[in-house]
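Hi there,

I know you've been waiting on this one. I reran it after we fixed the sequence typo, so this is the corrected version. Both the input and the resulting structure follow.
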Amino acid sequence: MAEVRELPRVSVNKLGEYLIATPARRKRIIYDQKHPPEQQYLRYPEASHAITDFLCRDLDPAILREHQRRFACSVPQSEFEAQRLHLCSEALERFADLAPWLGLEDTIVSAVGAEPPVLEMAGVTISVRPEVVLQRMDRNGNPRVGLMKLYFSKHHPLDERSGQYIGTMLQRFAEQHLCQLGPSDHRMVQVVDVFAGTIFTAPRAHIRRLSDVVLACEEIAERWAVH
């Protein structure tokens, strides 16, 4: 039976889209977040896992090739699964082209884990789910921390505004949940649009953007019951 969320909850990627969307699209986003697809109908969990594996194992290209071979050798049980495996393999190809531009030299990369914490804003739970934590020392030998979030959409790329909104929420996540590792550094907070080949860094100035996020969450909370 399809899930219906009683309490307002939205993914960070969809909230980034919501903040720049038309009224009609906003209405649809709320409906889709209240009535999410079943787990087996999600398109990119295997690609996210494979890229996380690659990032945490010294960016070895052989890791991505290994996962692509696994996708190619899998026997799909449905047309949807066949399409999903093809899209995941293509995502790995696109990410391989991006990897040299990530700037992860001298950076410790570790997986976030299966059940990361969430953000709560204006009565809405925001599911952030970054893939990896980034740690390195600054020029004075002090620890700094950041995050990387992967965005998968072949036909709906992020633009500068949505990418920076998502980066702002990632920065907030790091400040709330990773402070024990050291201060967060906005330059180490990355949103990677895999298919578009674009890397967004969290903006240094984020107060106005956070205010926009709060207002959007207030709107979602108010409209949740009628969708």
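Quick highlight: Residues 30 and 155 are 20 Å apart (CA to CA).

Best,
R. S.
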